[in-house]
Amino acid sequence: MNAFIDMVGLFKDNNIKVYLDFVPNHSSNLNPYFKKWIEDLKNQNIKFQKNDYYIPGKIDFLTNKSKLWIHIPGTSKKISDLEENQYNAYFSSFSSSNMPDRNLASQVTTKNLINSAKFWIDKGVDGFRIDAVPHLFDYREYEGIKINEYKDYAIKNKKEAIKLSKTWYKYFINTLKEYKKDIYVFGETLTGKNEIAEYNTSMPQFNEPLYHKIFKINNYKFYNVANEYNELNNYYKEKSKNPYLNGNISFLSSHDKDRHSSLLFNNLKKTRTFRNYDNNNLLMKKLKLSYLSSYNIQFTLPDQPLIYYGEEIGLLGERLQNEKNDIGRRLKMPWKKNNGRVKYVGNDNSKEKYLSNSKVRRRTLFNKNDENKIVKNLKKDLVFKRIKNLIQFRNKNDKIWNLPFDNYIINNVNGGNIKSYFYKDVKNKKEHLFIINFDSSNNSNINLSIHNKKINKIKLIDTNKKLNTSNNFIIPAGQVAYLEMTIF
Which of 244, 157, 161 is nearest to 201 (CA)? Predict the structure, then answer.
């Protein structure tokens, strides 16, 4: 704990906020509360009590209930081997038996979770990412059980489960805001736009559909950035009736998904140019610029950008064919050098096995000769430097992202593959224009036809280079230009 407090203090000294992953839906099966509860369950064959910390699994609940997992402690027996109506198992939202679902209908459980959050706030934490948002009240777990503490009825369907979940989240977040006024809470809803909109009424969410759209925008010319984003955002506004203008969270990788670099790598390998190549210079150059183009989009859209660790150096990782776990998506950060190669911190043999697998071509987007000199060469690396510049630009221009956002048409372009959009500041009579060149080989020569406007500045964000304020300028391959214009 002392090390954690020292770390938080160091971050605060550098004006960095700290957010923890918070998991109300389930716990570890090593949790002391669970161990005590499961012993009572096995010894007494107890039935559901409203203050139970976990949820006994009534076996006949399995009838016609797809994607619902019931685990039987201390036995290898299958569900079918047990008698119906027998309470000697427990529920989990996931297939793994080491993550039992908590009973969130219990006031005792809710109070414990709130106290846990307050404990971390007292240690200097600024907010939380809520894990597995849609799984909180699975109606299949609570079917036939009265939830008197919220509503005097049993949860009968998914719609009622969502409604109860939103009530719980609202109570949880409001209680924390009373304790820390500026607490920031956001949720992981890795499902479709319908559920994201539902939970937008409680807190910002991971924008899962945008994750897929950015990949398509990067790889297919006919996708339009602003149109794709606004279609989603307008849906969230209409559905939630409590819109966050720039409140959802954009992301390109996570612990549950293949890394963006690996997705792009595999996509490039399917093309005719690179089908028979491994790691040659042309492939790696195109991969780097394609990778950075995605981040050029992410950091210039209204949503709050989130970077999964290792993305700032282009860490590769994916679930290999026939693998059932996510080891390849969760590799250790390459901090140290050992015997001429990168050593991943930690002693996880399964991860070392993954790294030695012949299917894993590279670990990062570094040049091959620099792969074992990561710390030494970090400041020189293309990926790291450009993503760092994007972060700095985003932070310095935080007022832009709340402005109305729309498509911007540029007709006079020579070379490259550009996509453009802008934010309009009516009050201050300004427009903030972003132009991305997605081409990894050719520059774009831009000739803007503007009327009743003056260009105040032009800057290549990812390389932090200022250009002359002229209607005609060049955007190099794989870069993004920012223009600030005054409207007359």
Answer: 244
> Is beta strand 418-425 parallel, antiparallel or unpaired with respect to 87-92?
unpaired
DSSP SS3 for 69: strand
**Total-model pTM:** 0.83
Other CB atoms within a 10 A radius of the CB of residue 46 amount to: 14
CA distance linking residue 129 with residue 477, whole number of Å: 36
Residue 238 pLDDT grade (very low, low, confident, very high; cuts 50, 70, 90): confident
In which element (H, E) is residue 460 found?
strand 453-460
The contacts of residue 212 (CB under 8 Å, 6+ apart) are: none
How far apart are the C-alpha atoms of 335 and 357, rounded to whole Å? Answer: 20
Whole-number Å distance between alpha carbons of 330 and 346: 12
- Tell me the percentage of the chain whose pLDDT exceeds 90: 36
Q: Nearest to residue 144, comparing CAs of 162, 133, 135, 157?
A: 157
Q: How far apart are CA 316 and CA 360, in angstroms?
A: 9
Residues 6 or more apart whose CB falls under 8 angstroms from that of 99 comprise: 26, 27, 28, 29, 92, 93
End-to-end CA distance of the chain: 57
Which residues, at least 6 apart from 314, have a Cβ–Cβ distance to it below 8 Å?
A: 261, 288, 291, 364, 365, 366, 383
Q: What is the DSSP letter of 367?
A: -
Q: Please report the domains of the chain, with CATH numbers, ordered by start residue.
A: 32-103 (no CATH), 126-380 (no CATH), 404-487 (2.60.40.1180)
Whole-number pLDDT of residue 476: 92
